[in-house]
């Protein structure tokens, strides 16, 4: 599984609508509203790099109200949540 973190600048008057539409995109697992320079952060979890392109450039970037995005691809995951899930299935 490949994880991409998408930083989103959006029209703040449409923030809730943009967040809901991004969250509805297949491949997007979560959308967070955040403080600071960004408006939203979306987590994309897909099987291939081509899927990242399909999800981010093909769908997320086309959501009305998005001003710009920047995508970071995660190399490795360090998460207590992921470890707990692995142990719960017997790994």
List keywords for this structure.
about 90 residues; 3 helices
Task: Report strand order across the widest sheet.
Answer: 2-3-1-4
Question: What's the order of the H and E elements?
Answer: EHEEHEH
Q: Runs with pLDDT <50, length 5+?
A: none
Kindly estimate the percentage of residues that lie in beta strands according to DSSP: 25-35%
The count of β-strands is 4
Mean pLDDT: 91
The largest sheet, given as strand count, sense and whether it forms a barrel, is:
4 strands, antiparallel
Alpha carbon gyration radius: 14 Å
Taking the alpha carbons of the first and last residues, their distance comes to 16 Å
Shape: globular
Label the structural class.
Answer: alpha+beta
What this model shows, in words?
With 91 residues, the protein is an alpha+beta fold. It contains three helices and four strands. It has helices spanning 15-23, 49-56, 80-88; strands spanning 2-10, 28-33, 40-46, 66-73. Strands 2-3-1-4 form a four-stranded antiparallel β-sheet. It is globular. The mean pLDDT is 91.
Brief overview:
With 91 residues, this protein is of the alpha+beta class.
How is the secondary structure organized here?
Layout (H helix, E strand, L loop, with lengths): L1 E9 L4 H9 L4 E6 L6 E7 L2 H8 L9 E8 L6 H9 L3
Antiparallel strand pairs: 1-3, 1-4, 2-3
